[in-house]
Amino acid sequence: MQEKKSCSCLTRRQFLLGTGGATATIILTGFLGYSEGKTVALQTSRYPRKKIAKLSDLKQDFPVPFRYPHDHYNCTDILIKLGVPAEDGVGPDRDVVAFNTLCTHMGGPLMGAYQNNHKVLGPCPFHLSMFDLTKRGIITTGSATQSLPQIMLEVKGDEIHAVGVMGLIFGFSDNMEIAGHQGGGR
Ligand code: FES
């Protein structure tokens, strides 16, 4: 008779957000392409939950601006329904994603730089970097070397909530320690 095996595997989302079990602090070096010599601390379960929009209000390819995890210029983000499935996308078509809009190279502003034909954010007005919003904000061209921080989303009924950030926001040494930021704070 075969023995039944129970699976205690965590999904990538559960692992990064700490929703699969115990709260943990994870130190990652050279992981996910974010660090390039830096150590990125993903301190799970520290992020607030914030309602940012209704699924039914979203129009394809029309970005909705919001701020998360702080009400701070460096935390300016966009929520967007891409119309094509995306990595870590939410909603029935897995096509709703959110990203921070400061370029990871030197903080160039990417608000207003969405290109719906390629589903990218960019080019950055400073040094022309572009980021693919269907593939976790990976750099496609330009001077940046780190992916755009992706805001992790969850859907409850018709409500979309921000629940975490994957990647380090430009100007911060820790996404949740606003006192440590080096940005403009506009
Ligand atoms: S600041 Fe965006 S490419 Fe340099």
CATH architecture of the domain at 48-175: 3-layer Sandwich
CATH superfamily of the domain at 48-175: Rieske [2Fe-2S] iron-sulphur domain
Strand content range: 25-35%
SS element count, helices:
1
* Alpha-beta classification: mainly beta
Which distinct ligands sit in these coordinates?
FE2/S2 (inorganic) cluster
Alpha-carbon Rg, integer: 17 Å
Report the principal-axis shape.
globular
CATH topology of the domain at 48-175: Rieske Iron-sulfur Protein
Instruction: List low-confidence stretches.
Output: 1-6, 18-44
How far apart are the termini?
Answer: 66 Å
- Tell me the series of helices and strands, N- to C-terminal: HEEEEEEEEEEEE
CATH class of the domain at 48-175: Mainly Beta
Strand order of the largest sheet: 3-12-11-6-5-4
Q: Care to count the β-strands?
A: 12
The percentage helix is under 10%
Major beta sheet, specifics? 6 strands, antiparallel
**What value does the average pLDDT take?**
82
